[in-house]
Amino acid sequence: MNISLRPFIFALATISAFGIAQAQEDKLKEQILPSPKNRKSITWQYPVLNALDVNSDHIISQQELKEATGSLLTLDKNGDGVLTFKEMTPVFESGSKDTIDDGAFRGELVAERTEISGRSTREILKLLGSKGMLEPGKDELQNYRKLFSFTDRNKDGRHSAVEYVDNGPYLTPSSRAGIFKASDSNLDGFVSEKEYIENRVITDEAKAIFSSIDLDRDRKLTAKEFTESGKFKDKKLALAVYSAFDANSDGELILPEYLRIWGGWARE
Predict the structure, then answer these.
(1) Which of 72, 118, 267, 268 has the greatest CB tally within 10 Å of its CB?
(2) Which superfamily does CATH assign the domain made up of 115-266 to?
């Protein structure tokens, strides 16, 4: 008799995460936590849930459940085949205004470069697998609209900085500020539903492509991973593109800097 383990894996992961949260309560009281309006994002900082949520969309999909074993093994830092309490426990740094950071897109868009090794940046994105600004599917569009409406408290059809950045329920203030700035394409100080959906289409596609290259699921890309991804036939071009994404030239490409560059190129 074959029994699907997926529901049990998800249940175990959820129970573990919240069990850790309860055990940490006294310790957290001694540390500086985010303000109450940001505490909802704490849930997704627990390593178990964070590891399962490979594409960082705050949803554990069926595919992510199928890959749960491999995802959870990324928490096994010492490679002993066992997840200890310490390995499953989040770390909140004392004295920090923004202790929660889920690696979301933030900062100004970067679009200075229009070509790399004779290839336009738009062509580079296509080589990486981008389909461009396609209309989202019916269900996807409905979900985006629900999310937009949830934050649009006064129902005027647009997000103000107060609604989204100051009072938004997800991510950190700095992350929300970056997303707001990137989404406000006409620079009028507000984000319309159309602008919001456009930004979601761009970043969701970018994150999915990042995840497909990040085979070891450590949420960062090395030059080797990038050049051996099969996205580029020309290795020199692949290295040039990687260098363009790796804005701080530290040899390690993390999601925020990747999205920052991608967002600028996608809007050219």
Answers:
(1) 72
(2) EF-hand (1.10.238.10)
